[in-house]
Inverse folding.
């Protein structure tokens, strides 16, 4: 009986702690923490995942190393996060004895997902399905205690998923994985992605997947009602955001090219001179 009570208390504590951390992050308090964490982004692209871990989103992470193959992405990343994103093939970089991977607390990244995509008719045997291997080489070299990997939902349950779990566990990580929908966390897009989290000091399954902050107001054709199950949602969840919620405060788009204006108006243009942004869309499809 005492054990069951302890488990109940721990569960309630975790719910309260997750709520507190969410509120601290949205209020910008976490980003002002004295204890900051070193971050590496493998297959970084233009830095979208790094941005999610940055001070802009209320987090206490500092990017120290990144890599991508596309020079345009590298220029964008370095312009926003510091001049430390290396260009080139990740395999070549890791076999270059002159390249030193700095120590980090967390490694994030999304190894190319084309090898798992249902749109890829030749995905069996696609070499891009093995790019998770250099990802874990970076995890090992950096001595990171946490990793976060993003990919298409089809990776879960695949043969490679089993290999990823095996390699991570052999490195001392406890691993949890699930498919998350971006709309459930305040993004006006029904984008579903597999997230795999590993941690050496804590079982991520205790707190992952995170409790949702937003809900589909017409789930399964029925209006959802409050109160929500605390196991699924944080306190006072909001309705899914629409495109109108996100950008209705912007003026009508001008022209069809980037222009010399303060952000975000510099990128607020149409595909054609008479193009209008469809604000009446409920969500952008993934």
């Amino acid at each position: 009986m005492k054990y069951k009570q302890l488990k109940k208390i721990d569960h309630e504590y975790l719910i309260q702690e997750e709520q507190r951390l969410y509120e601290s992050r949205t209020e910008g308090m976490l980003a002002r923490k004295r204890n900051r964490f070193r971050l590496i982004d493998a297959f970084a692209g233009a830095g979208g995942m790094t941005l999610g871990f940055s001070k802009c989103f209320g987090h206490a992470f500092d990017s120290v190393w990144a890599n991508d193959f596309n020079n345009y992405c590298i220029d964008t990343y370095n312009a926003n996060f510091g001049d430390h994103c290396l260009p080139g093939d990740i395999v070549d970089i890791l076999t270059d004895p002159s390249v030193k991977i700095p120590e980090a607390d967390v490694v994030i990244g999304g190894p190319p997902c084309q090898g798992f995509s249902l749109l890829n008719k030749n995905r069996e045997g696609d070499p891009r399905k093995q790019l998770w291997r250099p990802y874990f080489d970076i995890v090992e070299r950096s001595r990171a205690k946490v990793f976060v990997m993003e990919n298409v939902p089809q990776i879960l349950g695949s043969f490679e998923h089993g290999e990823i779990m095996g390699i991570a566990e052999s490195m001392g990580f406890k691993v949890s994985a699930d498919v998350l929908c971006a709309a459930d966390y305040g993004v006006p897009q029904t984008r579903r992605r597999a997230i795999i989290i590993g941690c050496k000091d804590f079982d991520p399954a205790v707190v992952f997947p995170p409790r949702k902050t937003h809900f589909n107001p017409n789930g399964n054709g029925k209006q959802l009602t409050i109160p929500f199950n605390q196991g699924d949602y944080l306190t006072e969840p909001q309705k899914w955001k629409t495109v109108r919620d996100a950008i209705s405060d912007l003026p009508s788009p001008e022209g069809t090219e980037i222009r010399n204006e303060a952000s975000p108006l510099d990128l607020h243009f149409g595909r054609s001179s008479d193009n209008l942004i469809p604000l009446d869309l409920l969500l952008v499809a993934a």
Q: What stands out?
A: The chain has two domains: 1-32, 35-210. Helices lie at 2-26, 48-52, 71-81, 90-95, 132-142, 159-170, 243-247. The longest strand covers residues 61-68. The chain has seven helices and eleven strands.
